[in-house]
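Slide 14.
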Amino acid sequence: MTAPRLQLILSLLVVAIIGLGCERPADLDDASSSSPEQATADEPVILVSIDGVRHDYLELHGAPTLERLRDEGAYVERFIASFPTKTFPNHYTLVTGLHPGNHGVVSNTMYDPEFGERFSMGNDDAVTDGKWWDDGEPIWVTAEQQGRTAATYFWPGSEAEIDGIRPSHWVPYDGRVPGTDRVDQVLEWLELPEAERPSFLTLYFSKVDSRGHRYGPDSEEVGQALREVDGYIQRLFDGLDERGIRANVLIGSDHGMAPISPDRTILMDEHIDTDDVFIVDYTPVAMMNTRDGVDPAPIIEALDALDQVDAYHRDDIPAELHFEGHRRIPEIIAIAEDTWSLSTTGYFERNRDRLEGGAHGYPQQNDSMQSLLIAHGPAFESGKRIDTLQFVDVYPLMTHLLDLNPAPHDGSLEAAQRLLNPEYAPAAAAR
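Slide 15: predicted structure.
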């Protein structure tokens, strides 16, 4: 054997021995060596909405489970919705990371000039038709497209096929279903065999919002509803503990609530000719299109001249409202001052009782429209408090926790990652 050949063989042996010495046996692996993606692989994300919870409700009304979870987990003191602060637009913002002007669900009631059709929450045909929803990609579609399983127990948009996809598990909305049944179904989904078990789930409760509308945000009835839902949240966490499930749970709301009164109602037909307009949505944000040939400028001027109203053409809406760009946004937007309502004489006379109690829809900058967010689970930093977070920031946070490639969105993972434990932070932030 020549000397060069012998030298080559000895070198290769040295490299092999060093390599064996550096290799870590599989039985010595521990969780601290896992990547964030590995760490979250078996930790489902559960998004819970308690409709109509204002940022100060825990202090105002008390809710022991939510208070404990707030203290144990991470907490956003002012969770900032998108405009208008209504149920369907903001639930869809939470799961798409898009402002309503981009995802197209611009209010609870809409008119689409391309379809020539109206949409409302009570219209099952519209609610279940994907054409109203497919300008945004909700996270359950993101998850299902990338090999994950999703489950929704009530969420706007989840009853429709969007981009040809539905959640693997979903339930048509029925407000009569007891809260205990909703929680128990979510827990049953989490007991499914691994191939069917969801990684992303939603859960929704409406009673706090309903009581807020009827009795007002400061009422004892709202406090009772909040504590009832608080019990459902305790049932969820007890069920997770009993099953040994480590989950990352986000508990928030879609908007706050402001007190209203018939004495603070503006009758629009006293100031404009309502025959000149097609009113798409009423209070507290009146959205309308002009009839053929009618100039919108005098209508906007008349409404804007009122002390309790700011009125705009859709092309001039303030930038901080992020309400632009979609064909469903009507031509005229009239926004009532906080605690005020917009109506017509006929509606007021028929429905005076609906103009007292509580309302939402006002600009998201209003204190009364801001909500809260509690983030509890292994991914979140215990005791962390941040002042504000935008609704659009939740989508990139959830896709990060689920190791999904997000669809285009308006949110900021950088803003949301302040809630995370350092080991769950994005790789760039952890370095």
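Speaker note: Residues 1-40 have pLDDT under 50 and may be disordered.
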